[in-house]
Amino acid sequence: MKSRIVILTLIALPLFMAMSVAHKYYVSVTKIVYAKEEKAVQITSQIFIDDFENLLRERYDETITLAGKDESKNVDMYMQRYLTDKLKLVINGKEADINYLGHEYKEDITYCYLEVLKVEGISSMKITNEVLFDMFDEQQNIVRTEINSKKKSFLMIPEKNQGVLNFD
């Protein structure tokens, strides 16, 4: 009798699991690297295409489509406006001027490239990342840094959207 219950459980369990609603994860990954030779901070932000598209539609243009042949010429303008509003760096006590360079798509991810120029050295950096927090309550932003040969990572959530690094 026990073996029948075990067999029925083993057969039924995958069916119940297949019927359950899949949980959607809301996460972005941003990498910040200080390129000492170039005197620049290089930023790559990875955001799921569908999440970014939904945000840009809600905020700027409800007809916008990402990663398609008919992509609007305004996409870079919208991405720049949004990312420079939601991603902030304070380097050595001074707010950095972040330049948007462009984007590309790989599989289901949008890769956005940004940089800060004329950075002579870094003794401290405050990072604020609020990307998609205004769209998804469950959003999490992973920030990975490589500055002065030191690697550090942060997990940012709406309640804790900043990280501080000191190198003195």
Largest sheet: 6 strands, mixed
Summarize the amount of helix as a percent range.
10-25%
Label the overall shape. Answer: globular
Number of domains: 1
Strand order in the sheet with the most strands:
5-6-2-1-8-9
Record field, number of beta strands: 10
Helix and strand run: HEEHHEEEEEEEE
Give the low-pLDDT segments.
5-10, 12-23
- C-alpha Rg (nearest Å): 21 Å
Beta percentage is: 35-45%
Number of helices: 3
Task: Let me know the average pLDDT.
Answer: 88
Distance between the termini: 69 Å
In short, what is this structure?
The chain has 168 residues and is α+β, with helices and mostly antiparallel strands.
Any overview of this molecule?
The chain is 24% helix and 40% strand. The protein has one domain (22-166). The chain is α+β, with helices and mostly antiparallel strands and 168 residues long. Strand 8 (140-147) and strand 9 form a beta hairpin. The termini are far apart. The protein has helices spanning 2-19, 49-59, 75-86, and strands at 27-35, 40-48, 87-91, 94-95, 99-106, 109-116, 124-129, 140-147, 150-156, 162-166. The chain has a six-stranded mixed sheet with strand order 5-6-2-1-8-9. The chain has a four-stranded antiparallel sheet with strand order 4-3-7-10.
